[in-house]
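User: I've been going back and forth on whether these two constructs are worth ordering. Before I decide, could you fold them both?

Assistant: Sure. I'll take them in the order you sent them. The first construct and its structure tokens:
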Amino acid sequence: MATPDPRLQRLLGGLALAALRQRLRRHFERGGTAEGALLLGQLQPAEREALALLSGRPAKAARSLRLDLAELQARLQAAGIAGSLREALEHLDGPITDLVAERDAQQSTWLAMLSRTGRDPRLQAWLQAGTAAGLLKRLSRQDADAADILLSQAGKVLGRMPATGLPRSQLAAQVLGDAHALDAGRPVAALVLAAWRHGEAIRDMPAVDAGDGDFDDTRDEPLGPAADERARDIWARAGVLVNELARPVLVLNLPVPVDLDTVPWLRGEPAYLSLRWLLRAAPRWDVADRTVFVCENPNLLAIAAEQLGTRCAPLICTDGMPAAAQRTLLQQLVRSGARLRYHGDFDWAGLRIANHVLRHAGAAPWRMGMADYETAARAAAPARHTLTGSETEAVWDVQLAPAMRRHGLAIAEEAVAESLFNDLSLS
């Protein structure tokens, strides 16, 4: 760009007027024309003086000024300084970008990219959702070409799903050439999870906006929309293993699956089943129209094994908030026709866990009503365990939480073991 006219430099150049020039440039960046008036407020003395010289009007003490753009353009042309205010500003600070036209062009590029055909149907269905474009733009940093590459990669991954116990790192390496490409926080992983979760929602399965972050498995962790389902649980439902040996599910006397000759447990003995085994074996459980009991604490299952042994009804332990292995087994049992009944601690964390299991595993409460709590509270040992933590309500019994507030007493699941064993005993 040619060196600006020295007169223009004196009138509007310099560091002291840089903020004023930026305000004038924004008028044109936003699609403003050289016609009409431009109101400028909160002017500094040097800015008021410069505008007065440009417009040929005496400077006023007022901090605002209405600038007649057509009149100003005529003065600049008559003086031979510049053809217009926009031209003058470009002489001083470089070309002015038309942000409106640029935004329209970007929008057209995005629409063309999103309307392309031939993608995985699950990915295409998700792209029609209202939140899809926002997530895609965030992951691609507003770059339509980068977004197109991410969608192509996500489609390739979805083309291998559902899998049958395939480790996530192996899936990433085979499809994308990078064993970490589907790790938590990676863009392709976020898109795959979003598309898979959207497909589950269409099939009336529970779905939440979890993004792809995990939450801590402590018992006192309150559930919320983002913590309700973890990313690895969604991967597990798609047959993809993430940390498949962590937090196996503890079981006792599960019926032998109808499609397996051998199983990794003995009747009467507690056993751990890994997520890896559950997904790779994909057993069809012999539980149609049978009750399977579910407890919260490993100690209760251990006591049941000691006292009842082979006479104990099928029992599963969630070990606090269910992780991927626990959720996978519960879902497999429900699909095989089992009736799940759940019991946990009578404390606030226990109610949150119970709410989750009842909502997402389709279980029914097992001796978890207000009357059961009242009976246990009356029989409680002198050494009382006071309720602590954030309060919650029981979705299955609106009277339970008020009763717990009245007594202020937490009842551990092990404290009511004998009443539970009456239901568990098969003899």
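The second construct, handled the same way:
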Amino acid sequence: MLANSIPHPIPYQGSKRRLASAILSQVPDREFARLVEPFAGSAAVTLAAASKNLFPMFVIGDALEPLVGLWRAIIKDPTTIGETYEMLWFRERKSPIDAYYEVRSEFNRDKDPAKLLYLLARCVKNAVRFNPSGEFNQSPDKRRTGTKPETMKQSLRQAHKLLTGRCEAVTSDFSVLFRNAQSGDFFYLDPPYQGTSEGRDSRYIAGVSREQMIDALKILNQKDIPFVLSYDGHCGGKIYGEALPTGLAHRILLDVGRSSQATLNGRDDATVESLYVSNSIPLKRTNRKLCLADFAIQRELFA
């Protein structure tokens, strides 16, 4: 299945859809029982892995209960969730902004997964935001109308076809999934970057401190569970998060390309993301093609 044909029903800022192939290239050529994604979000890596049949089973985990409810609906009954999305999408035809805020208020009361899907498709930059009370508070995007219902329904059906019968969606603190990791598991980790889940700019329902992440990786290393982690990076002169200590995992720097925000502002800032690969996984020299052609970066990788 081509990368652009892999379904992506849940629009989510920070989705690893474009990087999924590079991430999955780190999976060793041996059999695993399941792929576990504790910070699932849009589950782009799970969907890409399912399309390639890299794992027989999958576990999607997230602390945001309505999001997990949405994944459960996709796995079990994509038709109902698609029809509800269509109803919400057409509801705003006469007064789009007012309708959006009505749905947002309703979601903050009833936590309906279909309403979360609508909000994610219609909010600014598909960027989830929560206030300190745990309420969704992102504004509507006034420049676009979000995914059209027929397109959304098709994507929901395709995701269902990939995951039904072999995927479990669980609402869980990530540490529970780490502690329950078992032989045969492979973990892909995409936690909130440092600085994006604290203070006034709270983007996620639950944050993860650097110390918590380090302790969690130690658990996987002690259990000899292989993992790939997306954790920090930089864009232009702005740095997102402090690099993890050496010894926990190998570090690869991926050139994501020119950022969309830089393009809008007429700049040429490249976005670079860190990928941490557990020490139990041999680095492949073909990773040179995935990294910036920078001597210091290559030296870090292959010295």
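Notes on the second construct follow. The longest strand covers residues 249-258. The radius of gyration is 19 Å.
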